[in-house]
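Cross-posted from the bioinformatics board.
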Amino acid sequence: MDKGIQKNKAVSLNIPAITGNAPDTDVTGAAARVSPFDRWMARKLLDLLDEPPLALVLWNGEVIACPGKPVTRVLIRDGEALNQLLINPALHFGDLYSVGRIEIDGDLVKFLEIAYRAAASSPKYQRLKAAQTRLFNRPRTNRPAESRDNIHHHYDIGNDFYEFWLDNEAMQYTCAYFPAPDLTLEQAQRAKMDHVCRKLRLKPGDRVVEAGGGWGGFAHHMARHYGVRVASYNISHQQIVYAREKAKAERLDGMVDYIEDDYRNIAGEFDVFVSIGMLEHVGRDHYGELGDVIDRCLAPDGRGLIHSIGRNKPELMNAWIEKRIFPGAYPPTLREMMDIFEKHEFSVLDVENLRLHYAKTLNHWLERLNRHAEKIEAAYDMAFLRAWRLYLAGSIAGFTTGSLQLFQIVFTRGSNNDLPWSRAYLYREE
Amino acid sequence: MDKGIQKNKAVSLNIPAITGNAPDTDVTGAAARVSPFDRWMARKLLDLLDEPPLALVLWNGEVIACPGKPVTRVLIRDGEALNQLLINPALHFGDLYSVGRIEIDGDLVKFLEIAYRAAASSPKYQRLKAAQTRLFNRPRTNRPAESRDNIHHHYDIGNDFYEFWLDNEAMQYTCAYFPAPDLTLEQAQRAKMDHVCRKLRLKPGDRVVEAGGGWGGFAHHMARHYGVRVASYNISHQQIVYAREKAKAERLDGMVDYIEDDYRNIAGEFDVFVSIGMLEHVGRDHYGELGDVIDRCLAPDGRGLIHSIGRNKPELMNAWIEKRIFPGAYPPTLREMMDIFEKHEFSVLDVENLRLHYAKTLNHWLERLNRHAEKIEAAYDMAFLRAWRLYLAGSIAGFTTGSLQLFQIVFTRGSNNDLPWSRAYLYREE
């Protein structure tokens, strides 16, 4: 975990290369002056968010704030940054923060929660966002070749990077489960995996197919602790290599087959279909296709579980995250997810919303990322580190403010009557 | 419970008044003859269901069946019955069975399961049904005045009738909960009510509003065992009278207010919104309105639960049931239910599908109905008794074959972070 990683400048988020001061932050020059127009823009920004408890500190030290409110301070380093922020806050804040042209004086998560709540409850902001979404914010598509590019962008940054801040047992880059809120990250990821295995009622010998297996930790866990055979599909080459090596080292390679292929190519019959954290990458237009895949591969009495970030109402992924971090990502509503299930009359047996569990998981990740900040900055650069810090903090705020949900959906074929009489068995040993 | 009930000919299902022999079942006359056309119709009917393991026994004793299959015998008493059955089986079977022009030789539920499965898997039948649904099968609407008529049709038949076969403690005309499958009906209805109360995390002093309170048993249970104050809305006059009397007799009338009014008129602020078995009567076009009502009445950290029959894919209620038993009824899919939740960004926390629990509940009801058959026939008539027997048996088959689901959905406002860390508390004492 704590090994050094090599300088990896090949990995980049393509953020405009302004890693030091912004071009016009020469505080002694003309750009340091704050014009009446700058002040107007700052006030307009606060107005757009319906007068939130935020203070904008301009590059000359001047403070623009709503009178009488407790304030978090947002340091804006140059006029062009302010301008970009006003044009499209959801898109540009990320890049500006990443390169240090905006700083937050205080807790980043708390600031983001304030901003998210203000944005969500401001009709003015919602109108602007809707217009911008219509015009600019088209998530990249997820046909097989594009999926490969999109997934490469995110998951092939380097296993070393993720090792710094994910749990060090199973490298779970998905929501953990904290039945008791003081579990460690490693305990909570184990609890998540066991919770899913119980929901799926795994029994030795079951044939399991996993769509989107990450670094292989869950397939590994199922094979080792539940005696099942797993075919785990993934299109991230680096993850597959990592997973295979680990399975071989622990002599589980006879039980787990890590397959570098698209979920659309899943072949064979299985007792269990499971997918943890892949649906976000599938894309709205492909849920029916995913349903077809499940229908093709699931045995008559088969069980399934899909674990995914979701929404209470349809909304695109934040524009900056979609652009820099997660191309092609889209968190669906339960209604949208029904495209997977309805066509083949799958029966939804159980939905559990673990929203606050993801906030807690992300808190652990952010804390670890910050602990390894120096090494990460040395291996990548400051903008990369700050972008990831913002992404994790913003995701926490998304979950704590209720803009993001985490759904686990258990399903089976509509004709399968082999159902437990209660869910008490999920909780017997807790 | 076991008291005699008075002859109640005013209550009628409006089934054509052929309660004895059908007009052409004079077995000595010309009508007793089976023509080649009759035989063709019988074979066509089996063909429509894709050769199910059924034998059609015609009025002269002749048997038409698919060769080599194990068979349940369907006795068809006259040619016109066969004709009507072929024209629209889903609609006419019910009336023909009710008046005795069709009989089932053997277990009624098993026959219905065979027929439902055959119908569901036969493309020919599905095409016919789709066409007939388009042409004829429009559920009655549920604007307030119509809702009143629709509900009067079903629930104001007479409390005495329901007392014969519902549980004798709380008169729950909704799915019970059998965490152990051998519970009695009374135990399982208590378990259902407690399961719902736990899901809602009721605490003493909570203000609860119930939409569609039936005979008041659940409101009663909440007030008595959880110390909450309940406003229970219902538009069935007979049920309201019954509920008020019972609450007064048990001195709970200070805790429970039974209000004879439409759910759309719910007024005030509440900590909890609950509705058990009303959504089926709300109608597809009114889910948004129901969502508005909930949004208007639910406190910021309020919790809600909706318990409803549902579907895996959109489908109208069986035409005969909609016509004779449940006018205006429609069991929605999860996707359709999201019309309640999405607009106001309610967050779905938990969905549990209790499909087989409803089959078991209905088995208890049918067994009790049959036990009191003589008294019910004396108070109403044979057709009434047989219609209800068919309705309960058909509902069992609907749940066992997976055509019907039972969803319990727990929700809260999207911004409410007062959420339990696990569902283990639901199962602590089981």
